[in-house]
Design brief:
single chain, 122 residues, alpha/beta, 3-stranded parallel sheet, 40% helix
């Protein structure tokens, strides 16, 4: 879970953790890229959930930096109230973002779980 907001990271971590997910969090896109690149090859990340407006990258920029390491369809982009000034979501969809790979904040537990399950099932 990649977000500059402590509350969002903590909420997502707590909610997913209750359902048996192993969750790691990052504050910035650069930190997330480092984590994905340096994880154990056989233990890779199944899903990355990232805000579209990070301190250092947009959601689309994060997606491009993860290309070749993580399938675009394994990324979920979060947006507050559907606000996407840089059109990260449109650009990411063109590059292969899963059709269900959008999560609007503030999200409820059922929305988070449905989105993650939709990505994992797809």
């Amino acid at each position: 879970v990649v977000d500059g907001d402590d509350a969002v990271r903590n909420d997502a971590h707590g909610l997913l953790g209750r359902y048996g997910c192993i969750v790691e969090t990052a504050h910035t896109g650069g930190e997330a890229v480092y984590m994905v690149r340096n994880c154990e090859p056989d233990l890779g990340y199944h899903v990355v959930i990232a805000d579209i407006r990070l301190e250092d990258l947009t959601g689309f920029e994060l997606m491009t930096q993860l290309t070749g390491i993580l399938e675009p369809s394994r990324l979920i982009l979060m947006s507050g109230f559907g606000y996407d000034p840089g059109h990260s979501i449109v650009q990411a969809r063109r590059m292969g973002l899963h059709p269900r790979g959008i999560l609007y904040k503030p999200f409820r537990l059922d929305q988070l779980l449905e989105t993650v399950e939709g990505i994992l099932d797809g």
